[in-house]
Amino acid sequence: MSLLTTIRRGAVACLAVVLVALTLAAQTVSVPMYDVVIRNGHVLDGAGNPAIRADVAIKGGRFVRIGIVTGRGRQEIDATGKYVSPGWIDMMDLRDGLWADVVVFDYDKIQDRSTYEEPSLYPDGIDWVLVNGEVAIDHGRHTGARTGKVIYGPGRRIAQGEANSLLGRR
Known about the structure:
This protein has two helices and nine strands; from the N terminus they run αβββββββββα. By secondary structure, it is of the alpha+beta class. It has two domains: 1-30; 34-142, Urease, subunit C, domain 1 (Roll). Strands 1, 2, 3, 4, 5, 6, 7, 8 and 9 form a nine-stranded mixed β-sheet that branches. Strand 2 and strand 3 (62-67) form a beta hairpin.
């Protein structure tokens, strides 16, 4: 066997080892496909049907997949034993493409703690709240996120008109 053949075989073997290592590394390091994935929750559809056990994937602030989600999320929420309630803006609407407003709660632990003296206390049993796909409440604590949008209706214009007329403005 010549020296050149030995070098070629060694180079091919080295290249094969590198390719196997890269393949294994690519399988273990996967880039998140979604912003948030809520896993194993009892998803309510808002139509009065029984809850279904499913995953919910959110990307770009919108629902993109409901069912079995195989891809990873940048943030993963384990909703095992909890209910996933969509809507609250698009009331009880959990369809692909809609803004992702979701409440994840434990039905057996939910309880209002607010009183007349302390009306701003958060309730118990609400573990996560997502507004426009971003986590606003995480494990019952506010994250500081203010992702909601103010929705103005015709009442605002009427109220502004009345205020302006009281102030003598047109």
